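During the second year of the project, the team shifted from modelling isolated chains to modelling whole assemblies. The rationale, set out in the original proposal, was that interfaces cannot be judged from single-chain predictions alone. As a representative example for this report, we include one of the complexes processed in the last quarter. Its constituent sequences, exactly as entered into the pipeline, are reproduced here:
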Amino acid sequence: MLTNCTTTNHADGKGLVVTAADRVGFDTIDRVELMASLAEHGYIVLRGFDSDPTTFSTLIQSVSSRITLDPARKFAGGNVAQKIEAGLVPQGLHVENGATPWVPDLVWFYCETPAKVGSQTTICDGLYVWDRLNARTQELFLSTRITFARPMPADKWKNLVFRLLDGAKSADEVTFEDLLTVTDDDVDVKYQLRSDGSVHYKYYTYAAHTTMFGTDIAFTNSILTPSVNYEPPVIEFEDGRPLDAMLMRQIMEATELETDEIDWHEGDVALVDNSRLMHGRRKIRDPLRSLYNAQSYAKDEIVSAVHNRAVLSRRSA
Ligand SMILES: [Fe+2]
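Output from the structure prediction step:
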């Protein structure tokens, strides 16, 4: 992928670790190569590069059309990345913002200070999880959507819309109509504005679906969602059936068997395809650990270039 870099699989033949020999900058990375590798491997760890919050932000901006943030978290580092402050408890596997109507394409991490012990980020490829589910469960998730429903306090949804409007208005000026405007047309969600200014939403989505780069089915969703910053969502099938204990057990077993860990090194950057992989974390055993997070939508032209390259290589094969 790069000169002066070595590449290895991250774990069990999954993921890709790109190690720079002499702390070169992220500007040496070919963006289409980077995203083509992401399409192949699902996630990439960039190790040994000349990294800091600013170069991290520049890298994100170079492949992203839009950068979004979790409105419940605080900013840190160039107004692009946020420091993860979700307490010390472990977090279950989830799609970033996957329980909301604003699901980003890409999730990014930058490790400023690794933990001395434990505290790994967990990562799980939904393509492999899908193969572990039995045919009946696969049929259920292909035929029936799931829903996530919950209220969002006024300050949180307004802050998110403010970010998505990209500075067109201040957070105080954001209206309910703006919320509708920044919601993509292909997203199925019902909003309800309440008298206290909060918005209750019900978001409909398939738990199993194709991915940003491929047509294979991935079981990638936020059913095992953590709810650190918000009221937990109610999760059920769209016909009102619950996700019963047997089903949850099957999901937990399948995901657990496909879960690997990222053991952070200082300065590591990880890029994750949020349409294919779920992530979470082990218990934080070192409170000095410092990890930044960002979320973004990939530039259409880069995604198209990766698709075109895949078509060309299939033809020449
Ligand atoms: Fe997350």
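The mean pLDDT is 89. DSSP finds eight helices and 18 strands in the chain.
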